[in-house]
TrEMBL record:
This is Glutathione S-transferase. It comes from the Bacteria. Transmembrane segments: none annotated. CDD domains: GST_C_Beta, GST_N_Beta. Residues 87-214 form the GST C-terminal domain. Residues 1-82 form the GST N-terminal domain. Keywords: Transferase. Gene3D superfamilies: 1.20.1050.10, Glutaredoxin (3.40.30.10).
Length: 214
């Protein structure tokens, strides 16, 4: 498998899932501004015309896009990892959480706040409208270790998104103690600790490249 990723982006969730599953994969870094695959200088848009990570090429050569779909593929591809959920209501709840994280947190809250080109009014509106999603999550996580009754790809995605609070000062996890405790606890999980450490180093290298090119 080939995972196209950018450091500390939402694609890190798939890296976490692959590490958790003990799966072999090639990790191909994509430079976000130029859409270039750094290992060979190729145009990433030849793989995914939209130019967004994560993108996964399976062992059969099938190209998959969209974070939630890729995470569910990994869970199904490696069932012994326990990253997925059984058919029925458990599988539906996994879908529910992947959708919540992707729409309410990832796109609804964090993307506007992280966008350097977004007007301050847009950022303020996103915070006013969507911080309540963290209230909901905080209440749900009270007394829970994971989103389901076990660690799943939904947790891999949620930790990846919560990790962005390091770059979003208006979103202070101290206001949501259950979310903060969940995040700090899962950051110690070996698959997550490894992924964060590796991608943080790559992110620093990315910033150095940008500085040198400026």
């Amino acid at each position: 498998m080939d995972l196209y990723f950018s450091p500390l982006a939402c694609s890190m969730a798939t890296r976490v899932a692959l590490y958790e599953a003990g799966a072999e994969a090639n990790y191909l870094e994509v430079d976000p501004p130029t859409k270039t695959v750094l290992s060979d200088g190729s145009d990433f848009r030849a793989v995914n015309p939209i130019g967004l990570v994560p993108t996964l090429r399976t062992d059969d050569g099938v190209v998959l896009t969209e974070n939630a779909a890729i995470l569910q593929y990994v869970a199904d591809r490696f069932p012994k990892s326990g990253l997925g959920a059984a058919e029925g209501i458990d599988r539906t709840r996994l879908h529910q959480w992947l959708c919540f994280i992707g729409t309410e947190l990832h796109k609804g809250l964090f993307i506007p706040v992280l966008d350097r080109k977004a007007p301050q009014e847009t950022k303020a509106y996103a915070l006013e409208k969507n911080l309540s999603r963290l209230d909901y999550l905080d209440n749900y996580l009270k007394g829970r270790d994971f989103l389901l009754d076990h660690f799943s790809v939904a947790d891999a995605y949620l930790v990846t998104v919560i990790n962005w609070t390091m770059a979003t000062p208006p979103i202070d996890l101290a206001k949501w103690p259950n979310v903060k405790a969940y995040y700090e606890r899962l950051r110690q999980r070996p698959s997550i600790a490894k992924a964060v450490a590796e991608e943080f180093e790559l992110y620093k290298a990315e910033l150095a490249r940008k500085k040198a090119a400026a």
